[in-house]
Amino acid sequence: MHRARPENREKARANVAAWRDANPERNLEAQRRWYAANRDRVREYRRQYREANRDAIRTANNKRKAMHRGAEVNDLTGAEWTTIKAAYGQRCAYCHIKPKRLTQDHVIPLAKGGHHTASNVVPACQPCNSRKGDRAAPIYQPLLM
């Protein structure tokens, strides 16, 4: 889309959207050509985005996994996860070490009907999380909310 005057931007966007809706095959082909011509640029942008937003990506992935595993309540946010990690001093809830990366461990596992909520998630290092598996853990979660 070429530059439009500020007063015509919305009209221009509406016209482009209408064209895309009316010409889905041509639009898809144009997108493919653009991606082929800019593949390295897109890959670099995605790499930078992943590096800058690791926690947001992990939060989204964990939410998706919880939904896939059938968690009835799935409302843990990135801000809540950050608060939980801070409450534990960035340490594992089980062995109390301070690893490079903490994983979300469900006190009542999703496989046993647990929920993906702030009250059911504690930070754990990967070895402790793997060792615990799908067994229930003692209640470590402090009252944060």
What's the helix and strand layout?
Layout: H1 9-22, H2 24-37, H3 39-52, H4 54-68, H5 78-87, E1 103-106, E2 121-124, H6 126-132
In the CATH scheme, the class of the largest domain would be Mainly Alpha
- Named CATH topology of the largest domain: DNA Binding (I), subunit A
Mean of pLDDT: 88
Uncertain parts: none
Structural class computed from helices and strand pairing: mainly alpha
Order of helices and strands: HHHHHEEH
In the sheet with the most strands, the strands line up as: 1-2
As a whole number of angstroms, the C-alpha radius of gyration is 22 Å
Discrete helix count: 6
Outline the biggest β-sheet. 2 strands, antiparallel
Number of E-type strands: 2
| Count of the separate structural domains | 2
Strand content: 5-15%
| Dominant shape | elongated
CATH architecture of the largest domain: Orthogonal Bundle
- How far apart lie the N and C ends? 47 Å
Helicity level, as a percent range? 40-55%
